[in-house]
## 1
Amino acid sequence: MLSRLVIVLGLVLLPFSAVAGEPLCKRLGGSDAVSAVVKSFLTKMRKDDADKLGRFWLYRGDDGVAREEQLIVDFVQSATGCGRLYVGRSMSAAHKGMGLSAADWNRTAELLRTTMTEFSVPADLQTEVLDLVSTTRGDIVECEAETFGCK
Ligand code: HEM
């Protein structure tokens, strides 16, 4: 009786454990879905107010922006397990000297969360993505100011 119960429970729970064991990329809907979310999020960053995150893209050329966008898509696809190779710079090298503050970071996280909500990413996956992105915070944020930029 007990062994039958274990088998039945196992069969019921198997699909859930299989889903949980899948890479984050797949659970987000695959490489194309990850790319679409990242591109939409980056558009929001670029269009942000000039005294907030938009200040970084005020005088950037199109080709530089396109290159940066592709690198960030590659980075996120690689980090979420899409099997993508990231060949860009380290996070510390790429952001060193930009003067990114805690306020910049919080605004970035807010725009990412808004984007994922627009793409109907479930709350638990949003948290997983934000936790993953947060592992880069120490390499990117240069001061803990609650104002945009480090003075
Ligand atoms: C906190 C707000 C952030 C701002 C304002 C920001 C801004 C920028 C800018 C302006 C560049 C272009 C640098 C250049 O061309 O020299 C860049 C590059 C990049 N950023 Fe960020 N970034 C932020 C956070 C992040 C985060 C959280 C990630 C990763 C999840 C990330 C990943 C990258 C990557 C992969 C590159 C390309 C590196 C390369 O050129 O080799 N950034 N970022």
## 2
Amino acid sequence: MGINGHRRELSLVQKVQRKLRYYEQQVLAPVKYLAYATGQTKFVPPPDRMYIESTNICNLKCIMCPTGRGEVTRPKGFMDFDVFRQIVDEMAPYVKATTLHIWGEPLLHKRIVDMVEYCSAKGLRSEISTNATLLTEEKSRQLLEAGLSAIYLSLDGMRPETYESVRVNADFERTNQNIRRFIEIKSTDHYDTYVNLQIIQMQQTVDEIDEFVETWSIPGVDRIHVKAFDSWAGQVDEINELRAYEPDLPAKRYPCPNLWYHVHIYWDGSISMCDRDFNSRFPLGSVIDEDGKVRVMKNWNGPRMQELRRRHIENDLDDVFPCNHCTEWAWWKPTFSTSQGNRPVEEGDAQRDPNRLQKSSTLVVYDRPSTARHTDAK
Ligand code: SF4
């Protein structure tokens, strides 16, 4: 009942459901790891995390984003709510969390609040990353009340000129106000939504990161996320040029964990290897079968996924675009008991030493202990 000034509480059933899932996932972790480590391609257990593209339409033209730069040439659209519902129905028992964005601004989806609410009803953690330009007070309250588990609020810069040169078409003051109001409502009404305040590490922002961290280390912000620069598999020269630091790659390439741990579903139901294949250059089929029914698991282990996993195992990637251009596969590697969202491994409260940032690229400065398992964001 947050709208009236009270915190939304999970029902007893939801609490039990979440606990049981947590233990199930703990038990499944070694099974997943074995599938990855032994090079299983066909009978891969359900993914840890699900990335759902509510829409690939955006209201901004950010300079580090293929959508903003007009590089995403797939048809534009919004996910049908019934398709979304079927995806969640099938996958909620298995995945730890779902993000409701891949390419595009999720708040543009008319039913984004319903999506969050549906996940909550199914005991599935939901997360969104937003540019916060459309995060009105009303929308903030609706999202909090719907039980959003985590939000990434993107604010790249401390100065209007920095922010507005990166997030083209956004207004610095307006976005700041929206973010501060969201945090205020969350804190005042004691909502449990985990708030990540995010700045992307790039040439334009790197000199403002210290000040950003200091300024935003405030109650209500659970984590300041200095996000690694994602080159989106190095496909766009103008984006590559924005890098502040060169990536640090292991000597030997290993199969990309995303293909065993994360499912990415675009707005039209098509499956992608990860968000870096933003134009589906290596099509992997669709979760929507010929009879119109959604079947995620069947297609997660479909023939094209199997082939792609095999190509990774054999390191036969010369003609697998964009994996052959990618450096982000090295961001993380699973272990027997742990996996990671689609972002680099963190080094806790790392110092803001440029060399260290280059390696860890993700800086957790102010971290509220939480059961919320955050994934990543754009
Ligand atoms: S290698 Fe890169 S592009 Fe390919 S699936 Fe992994 S992260 Fe995505």
